[in-house]
Amino acid sequence: NEVMSCEKGDRDPMEDPLFILESGEVYRNPTEVKMSQIVMPCHANHCGELSVGQLLKWMDSTACLSAERHAGSPCITASVDDIHFEHTIGVGQVVNIKAKVNRAFTSSMEVGITVSCEDLFSSCQWNVCNAFATFVARRTEEGKVRLKQVIPRTQTEQMEYSIAAERRRMRLTHAEIITDLLSSNTAQLECQEYQGAVSAERTRVESVELVLPPHANHQVSTFGGQIMAWMENVATIAACRLCNAHPTLRTIDMFHFRGPSHIGDRLVLKAIVNNAFKHSMEVGVCAEAYQGAGALRHINSAFMTFEVLDKDRKPRTLPRIRPEPDGKRRYQEAIARKKIRLDRKYIISCKQTEVPLSVPWDISNQMYLSYNNVSALKMMAARSNWMLSSEKNKVRLYTLEENQILCFKVETHVTVPAEQAFHLLSDLRRRHEWDRHYQKCDVIIQADEDDTIYRVATPCVSKGGKGQDFILLASRRKPCDSRDPYLIALRSVTLPTHPATEDYTRGEVLCAGFSIWEESNAVTKISYYNQATPGVLPYISNDIAGLSSSFYGTFYSCNKYLEENRDSLAILPPSDL
């Protein structure tokens, strides 16, 4: 098992103490469920490490109990987002799993799962993985279950509640977008020949399992976690056949359950190594079910990434794969998926402070950059420790300093319907009508109706200097329900077609944008957020220091612009440029 460096008494990363609310009430999330299991030899693989299949079963059980606690009725696993396993767990160590419902929609809900490991002899704890699963409430005799809303009570819950809507949006479009990306990328890929390559056919595995009562839940349906465990088992065998060694599972891509399985089903599990790279391999695995002489039913498909570690726990170089004629498509798609996977992990999984100011934009990472853009703004808006810096005529300037990062918020109210304010502020080409810092703004790319890339030119803030320009991705979001605002998120991206020029200094925006709340049919609260970067700070530093109130003039102009155009039809960028 991996040796973790920690001091005795380190805090469990899963531990979530009881909260004392402003009212003095002691609060614990009512949907929270915890499970702790000590890893016994029967749970471990040949390396003395907890089988990932067993861990998946425990995770699914815990998450299902949390979902059912909220729904008050039986629930089934619909999908699981990407899982990245950071560490392995050894025999004798304790697995702590915590699950809670982040948000409920009409009949489905997102459950957040945190897994940590505890060494009982050293009192060390460390994070193993985080996951998000979607559960659906089963129909009852009364009909379809309509779930009650989750009411977030803490800053962390508000943050997860808000971002859950964005994750759901990505889930719903994920399969279609992945299909489009694969079809466009694989056309340019060729199957390379490697000396000593292993035939992909050698790694093929097929196994059948009979679903018995111990494999089923209290609804006599096969546990989703049990199906995942069987899939992990055959995928591991396929990976072993390629490298003749014991592989370690590192990631499982997002997957959806296509249909249910029940007691008495014969579950056919198939796996094959689609492609091998220098230090990792992708294994494709699917599960199909049948009863008696019935036809096969597709239950699930997944892609798992394995590594083989040497004695120093470093990834070993792997043999290459030689696809069979009928496997060339899988081979090519694995290459495309690897790029998509790296983009997704790089943009989504890393902490906001680790994301570079500008990320290269292209069609393959559009969905993930848009997600990151909106999620970053939601996280900033969910913070509760903003400090009022100044106020003038009901325009308030707030600041927030955390981890040596300065953020500011400007808040005002307008007598304009929220949707109209959203449409007017969405079109950055008109921002120069109320914001003197926007000298010129042009549309570069209209990716879709929600995402637009602009080039913005701003005037010089010091005598004799050059103006700045920004390449900004603007991501728009309408409310998922009445508990959500309209959002316009902004962040810098890079485009090879628009490099920096001598006439302007290229500026960067890490996170900025508008949150637009409908307080009544006629009154709207508008909050503008910005995480100060070297390119942005010169325009606001005097206001933050109390030496100027130019922010008031800008947002007074914004208010006037919105009210003058409250009855006009906002003209959005053309759909295809």
From TrEMBL:
It holds the Pfam family START. Its EC number is 3.1.2.2. The lineage of its organism: Eukaryota, Metazoa, Chordata, Craniata, Vertebrata. One of its GO terms (biological process) is acyl-CoA metabolic process. The keyword Zinc does not apply. Residues 386-555 form the START domain. This is Acyl-coenzyme A thioesterase 11. It catalyses: butanoyl-CoA + H2O = butanoate + CoA + H(+); tetradecanoyl-CoA + H2O = tetradecanoate + CoA + H(+); dodecanoyl-CoA + H2O = dodecanoate + CoA + H(+); hexadecanoyl-CoA + H2O = hexadecanoate + CoA + H(+). It comes from the Eukaryota. Residues 29-141, 201-312 form the HotDog ACOT-type domain. InterPro entries: Cytosol_ACT, HOTDOG_ACOT, HotDog_dom_sf, START-like_dom_sf, START_lipid-bd_dom, Thioestr_dom. The keyword Hydrolase applies. Has an acyl-CoA thioesterase activity with a preference for the long chain fatty acyl-CoA thioesters hexadecanoyl-CoA/palmitoyl-CoA and tetradecanoyl-CoA/myristoyl-CoA which are the main substrates in the mitochondrial beta-oxidation pathway. Its main location: cytoplasm. It comes from Oncorhynchus mykiss (Rainbow trout). SMART domains: START.
